[in-house]
TrEMBL record:
Domain Peptidase S1A alpha-lytic prodomain: 108-166
InterPro entries the record matches: Pept_S1_alpha_lytic, Pept_S1A_streptogrisin, Peptidase_S1_PA, Peptidase_S1_PA_chymotrypsin, Streptogrisin_prodomain
Gene Ontology molecular function, alphabetical: serine-type endopeptidase activity
GO CC terms in record: extracellular region
Disulfide bonds: C204-C220, C289-C299, C326-C353
Position of the signal peptide: 1-19
Domain of life: Eukaryota
Lineage of origin: Eukaryota, Fungi, Dikarya, Ascomycota, Pezizomycotina
Coiled coil: none
Official protein name in the record: Peptidase S1A alpha-lytic prodomain domain-containing protein
Matching CDD domains: alphaLP-like
Length: 378
């Protein structure tokens, strides 16, 4: 399709799609509403409007990203507006007509993602990784709002961060090294957010009920490990880890005993549950909440996607999303959700709730695809 025809199509068609949210705002569960009001500082009307806008914005960004092609530089939600990055002014004018706020940027998203992929491939190769010291490096990812590839490191590891960024073959203007105070660590300690015990020793939180069992974080257990219910050893037998991937990814599937009841719901830690209706992925900047045994329900926003994180300075995990919602040890594997749509399982924390920290989660849809299971909805 020629560019002129493509942009005409966008200008005519996208406002129609943008006005059709995938999740009706009036379906917002009261407990989700309460958590958003508490953690995001919103009143009820603002929270409902926020979810409605997030749904519409996510659809608009998705359609534009597929239609603009190599001129697309990313999309995000901020302060009630939908932003779409583009690499030329002509495309910007038509993106504006489609209902988004255009931002003209220097580098396409595909170029930045290719650089990150090159870094991932380098570190995933055992032989090549020996040539790269990742000591003191926390994570690296594409920051669509800054239009840069970002490497986060401790202050005394900046030289190593620059060396790692060089593996992406970007010019200095296309990447940035940011200083963090600490390194992320795994948050390890069926209704989503409830606790379970692995081999009578460690504790994690259920993610989502799926066909034949539940999904959770990979670092919670290895294939064959035994799972029991509750927060301490000696609970009722639940099942065994049928699959687990960590590091690389942080996902697992536990096949449950026939006696175990599986519910498409998440613990709201206020005496009830929140129904799970699907797994539509929310856009960066959208509101998100998480449920886990240690800290209950906490809400924030999705602040990044497809991030490579180096947990405890050792274990590299690819493709994580980042959230401003805090979590602590024992919350691992618990449910992340936006409205009634499942988003992922808790993977790691940097700082914890007492220190105003942030969290990482393994996206849900890749877990479902990896294990060939379907989400149980409520």
């Amino acid at each position: 399709m020629e560019l002129t025809n493509l942009l005409s199509f966008l200008a005519v068609m996208l406002p129609v799609a943008y006005g059709a949210p995938t999740q009706a705002a009036d379906s917002l569960h009261p407990e989700i509403l309460n958590a958003m009001m508490r953690d995001l500082g919103l009143n009820a009307e603002q929270a409902v409007a926020r979810v409605s806008h997030d749904n519409q914005a996510t659809e608009l960004i998705s359609q534009l990203s597929g239609s603009i092609g190599d001129k697309f530089a990313g999309g995000w939600i901020d302060a009630g507006k939908t932003y779409v990055g583009v690499t030329d002014q002509a495309t910007a004018e038509h993106v504006k007509a489609a209902g988004a706020v255009p931002v003209v940027m220097n580098t396409s998203l595909s170029k930045l993602e290719a650089a990150k992929e090159a870094m991932d491939q380098h570190l995933s190769s055992a032989i090549q990784a020996r040539d790269t010291d990742t000591t003191g490096i926390a994570s690296y990812f594409v920051d669509v709002t800054a239009n840069k590839l970002v490497v986060e490191s401790l202050a005394d590891s900046q030289e190593r961060a620059h060396a790692l960024a060089a593996r992406g073959n970007l010019s200095e203007g296309d990447y940035e090294v940011r200083i963090v105070k600490s390194l992320p660590s795994a948050a390890a300690s069926v209704i989503g957010g409830n606790s379970y015990v692995i081999n009578g020793k460690t504790r994690c939180s259920y993610g989502f009920a799926v066909s034949g069992g539940f999904v959770s974080a990979g670092h919670c257990g290895n294939q064959g490990d035994r799972v029991t219910a509750g927060a301490s050893a000696g609970g009722e037998y639940v099942g065994d880890f049928a699959g687990s991937t960590f590091p690389g990814k942080d996902m697992s599937y536990v096949k449950t005993a026939s006696s175990v009841q599986l519910y498409g719901a998440i613990n709201n830690y206020n005496g009830g549950t929140i129904p799970v209706k699907g797994s539509q992925e929310a856009a960066q900047g959208a509101s998100v909440c998480r449920s886990g045994y240690t800290t209950g329900v906490r809400c924030g926003t999705i602040t990044g996607k497809d991030q490579t994180v180096i947990l405890d300075g050792v274990n590299k995990v690819y493709g994580l999303s980042r959230s401003s919602a805090c979590c602590d040890h024992g919350d691992s594997g618990g449910s992340f959700y936006s409205g009634s749509q499942g988003q992922g399982v808790t993977s790691a924390t940097n700082g914890g709730c007492s220190d105003g920290g942030y969290s990482y989660f393994q996206p849900l849809n890749p877990i479902l695809q990896n294990y060939g299971v379907s989400l149980i909805t409520g």
